Amino acid sequence: MSGIVGAEVDSYWQFDSDNNGITIYTHEHTDGLIEIRAQMYTPTSYSAFLSLLEDSENVPNWIDKASHSRVINQISATENIVYTQFTAPWPARDRNMITYSKYWLNELGFTINIKDASDYTLVEQSDDIRIRSVDASWTLRKLTHGTTLIEYKAFADPGGLLPDWLMNKLSKQSARTTFGNLRDQLPKYQQYSHPQIEE
Questions:
Q1: Would the CA dihedral through 77, 78, 80, 86 be positive or negative?
Q2: pLDDT, tens only, 164-177
Q3: pTM confidence score
C-alpha cells in the first residue's frame, strides 16, 4: 500500500520514492529548499505514538540525528515548547531548534502541529546553528484491519552554508531513516494508554 490517500492528489506534491513501505513526496520552495511529505502504514494506537513522542530520553533512538530533546515549557496538557539538538556530519556545525507543538484528536484522527519558536528565551547559549522557519505536522488515521496511516509533513531552514541540493538530499534520507526507526520503536509502546487520548 502506498501513495497519497484520499482527494489530495494534486500538482503540489511530487513523488520521490517508495522503499520498504515508506513513501516520500517533495515540494520545492522558491528558495531552493524542499518540503517533505512521508507516509507509511503500520499497526499502532494513537496513545502509543504519543507516548513515544513524549519519551524524551528515547528521541535519539528514532528521530534521525537527534542527540537530545526536552520540554522546556509545558503550556497546557496538549501544548509544549520543546528544545531539540541534532548532530551534523563534519565539517557542518550541529543544529538545534526550539518549537511550539500542539496536538488534538478528532473524528479524522490524531494530529500534532509543530511551529518554529526560535524567539523563545533559552537560558544557555550554544555555538550550534539554529534551525528556523520550522513548520511540520504528524497525522495518524486508523484504517481497517488494525492498520494506521502515519504521515509527516515538514519544512525547515537548516541554516548554515551547505548547498541546497545537499540539504534536500539529507532531508529525504532523514525522513526515511526516522520512519524506519519509528516503525521499529512503536511496538514497545503499544501497551501504554495516554490520559489525553480516548480510542
A1: positive
A2: 888 899 899 999 99
A3: 0.89
